[in-house]
Amino acid sequence: MTLNRINNDQEICTTNCSTTAGRLDRLERAVRGSCDGMWEWDLQTNQVWFAPRYLELLGMTPEEFPAELESWRRQVHPDDVDTTWGAIERHIDTAELLDIELRMATKGGNYRWFRARATAYYNEQDKAMLVAGSIQDIDDLKRTEQMFKEKEAQLLQQQKMEAVGKLAGGVAHEFNNLLQAIRGYTVFAQVTLDADSQAYEDLQQVITASEQATMLTRQLLNLSRPETSNSRVCVIDKIVVDLECMLRPLLPENIGFRLELAQLEQFST
């Protein structure tokens, strides 16, 4: 583990000393020109410094965002506080890379995504003395990533539906062949029966059921081969009556069945 060192006799400050004035000027210009918001936390005094750009990213003034650790805590999304603070503590304890994403509230109260990176500095006794880092606004990037994820999910769902449609089309085709055979043999059987007999009526229900099943297979075929559907007029009462004839034989004797039809208009399907 490699630690960033600070000499014991070195002050942790940004005092504009004459020997370092040039370096500080360059540093100040670099900070101002950066898109990132710099910050620094003195672990010995618990003092925090936020660069002007840091406050700009949040849309706040120094009066609205005092140089205190609590100011940072207040702006972090409640769901991200523990995770973020835990990452900072792990970095201080282990020098593990600190590069995380979190949400912070801006002046208007809206949360935006930020990328936070930091580095801890240690003395000769391996004691953490200072943490310095930056935040970068990545809200637009996160929104774009979310949009791509949603589009990807939609594409995967579309591909699944296409696969299901092809499978359903194959099943419907084979099932439709079976239905045609069932209907054909049923018609042949009716020819040998009296039209007023119960057996003839039962076989008629088989034909009705096979016709309804054929309609379902057509819908499955349309799913696999999308085409413009043709609307037709149907009478709801007739469909309900046909279903009644199919349901009555299936119900146990202790269950009553009563059908009441209102005056319904015709519907297009």
> Shape, please?
rod-shaped
Estimated helix fraction: 40-55%
The biggest beta sheet is recorded as:
6 strands, mixed
Quote the average pLDDT: 81
CATH superfamily of the largest domain: PAS domain
Order of helices and strands: EHEEHHHEEEHHEHE
Number of separate domains: 3
Say how many strands there are. 8
Which architecture name of the largest domain does CATH use? 2-Layer Sandwich
Q: Approximately what portion of the residues adopt beta-strand conformation? A: 15-25%
Radius of gyration: 38 Å
User: CATH topology of the largest domain, what is it called?
Assistant: Beta-Lactamase
Number of helices: 7
Question: Low-confidence parts, pLDDT < 50 over ≥5 residues?
Answer: 9-19
Oligomerization state of this entry? single chain
Q: Which structural category fits the helices and strands?
A: alpha+beta
What distance separates the N and C termini? 72 Å
Query: Briefly, what CATH class of the largest domain?
Result: Alpha Beta
Brief description of this entry?
The protein is 51% helix and 17% strand.
